[in-house]
Design brief:
Layout: H1 9-15, H2 41-48, H3 63-76, E1 80-84, H4 87-98, E2 104-108, H5 113-122, E3 129-133, H6 138-144, E4 149-155, H7 167-177, E5 182-186, H8 191-194, E6 204-208, E7 222-226, H9 228-243, H10 249-259, H11 262-281, E8 286-290, H12 300-306, E9 313-318, H13 322-329, E10 336-337, E11 347-349, H14 361-366, E12 373-377, H15 383-394
Parallel strand pairs: 2-3, 2-4, 4-5, 5-6, 10-11
Antiparallel strand pairs: 1-7, 6-7, 8-9, 9-12, 11-12
Helix pairs in contact: 1-3, 3-10, 4-9
Bound molecules: pyridoxal-5'-phosphate.
């Protein structure tokens, strides 16, 4: 595998996984094919039996996806990666490969809404036990580990409150209890440019690659990174037989294109987010700002330890009721009201009624997601223009 082990991040994001094309194409051609021809019946049989390397069918693998997978393995410093059709495809594939009936998953309670739905209402249907609790507290984590715990699962920063979990601490506590537990981290908000969970003791990283990794808002995609033997099981069981959530070759091409600029996009997202967070911090109409880069933020010290910069996501609560908040946001002229994140455009959404509407009112309160919380994916526009847009809508609120 082309890991470019001694190269820097920027070199890897451009060159890892790239193969020299026989016609000299700089960008790898898109292998837009469902299946691959065999020279003979014997060759087809040998490939199915695993006696000969080579492609069989694009649900198993495809050169366009392999190129992307090698790039992601290099960026996350993992042995192997697997591209999937969506972030949820990655999460479902990783979890269904790791557990079976009777096993237990311990997960943090603040999660992207559909991950929460899968864990809270989905997996229990099939006899997998799930506990959702606050994993920032190591004692609480210890208390909930059980002999049948196979997975400890969390995001950091969490969607949507930006809560920070200490990856090294959670991995240490889980592995001290049982080294076979798989610690799975959703690294969507941080990206490998800011945090590399595998180097901090986690076993598996999952991503919604729809977000910063692709970065241009034009692809739904996911990826899993980890040890080669587990990734092979994810490919040959979780993906091939269970979820079938295979990434399309064209999407792999777009993702590899987006990844070439990940570091410079993240630098700009982070510096714009810091400026916007500071603006909100000093605005009289803002009751609370959630941003890991602010000294006043609860997880700031842990964020400093495990993140290169503090990310491009900011959340706020206004000193206003839900209706007034909505009226205010409807007046935004540069920022767009939309779910998703990590795009060039600044996107604003209301978690309680949108991305996290899978939580009940009690579950929202338990996870610290208030009715007034507004999530902002800070884009790549000029920071003065983003701030001016918010200044304008907040001017009559005090
Ligand atoms: C943190 C996180 N994980 C996973 C997902 C799911 O990804 P996708 O929409 O690509 O399926 C999302 C989507 O918003 C997310 O924010």
């Amino acid at each position: 595998m082309n890991h470019l082990n001694n190269s820097g991040f920027a070199t890897k994001q451009i060159h890892a996984g790239a193969k020299r094309d026989e016609n000299g194409a700089l960008c790898m051609p898109i292998y837009q094919t469902a299946t691959f021809s065999f020279d003979s019946v014997e060759q087809g049989g040998a490939r199915f039996a695993g006696q000969e390397n080579g492609y069989i069918y694009s649900r198993l693998s495809n050169p366009s996806l392999i190129m992307l997978e090698e790039k992601m393995a290099a960026l996350e410093e993992g042995e192997a990666a697997l591209a999937t059709a969506s972030g949820m495809g990655a999460i479902a594939t990783a979890l269904w490969t790791a557990v079976r009936t009777g096993d237990h998953i311990l997960a943090d309670e603040t999660l992207y809404g559909c991950t929460y739905a899968l864990l809270n209402h989905g997996m229990e249907r099939y006899g997998v036990e799930v506990t959702l609790t606050d994993l920032t507290d190591a004692e609480n984590l210890k208390k909930h580990l059980k002999p049948n715990t196979k997975v400890v699962y969390f995001e950091t920063p969490c969607n949507p409150t930006l809560k920070i979990l200490d990856i090294a601490k959670v991995a240490q506590v889980a592995h001290e209890y049982n080294p076979a537990i798989r610690v799975i981290v959703d690294n969507t908000f941080a990206t490998p440019y800011l945090t590399r969970p595998l180097t901090l003791g986690a076993d598996v990283v999952v991503h919604s690659a729809t977000k910063y990794l692709n970065g241009h808002g034009d692809v739904i995609a996911g990826v899993i990174i980890g040890k080669a033997d587990y990734l092979l099981e994810c490919r040959m069981f979780g993906l091939k037989d269970v979820t079938g959530a295979v990434m399309a070759p064209f999407n792999a091409f777009l993702m590899a294109r987006g990844l070439k600029t990940l570091d410079i996009r993240m630098e700009r997202h982070c510096s714009n987010a810091m400026k916007l967070a500071r603006f909100f911090e000093s605005h009289p109409a803002v009751a609370k700002v959630y941003y890991p880069g602010l000294e006043s933020f609860n997880g700031h010290e842990t964020a400093k330890k495990q993140m290169r910069l503090f990310g491009g996501m900011v959340a706020i609560e206004l000193k206003a009721d839900k209706e007034t908040t909505a009226k205010c946001l409807n007046r935004l002229s540069l920022a767009t009201i939309a779910v998703s994140l990590g795009d060039a455009e600044t996107l604003v959404e209301h978690p309680a009624t949108m991305t996290h509407s899978t939580y009940t009112a009690d579950e929202l309160a338990e996870a610290g997601i208030s009715e007034g919380l507004v999530r902002i994916s800070v884009g790549l526009e000029d920071p003065e223009d983003i701030i001016a847009d918010f200044r304008e809508i907040l001017k009559d609120l005090k």
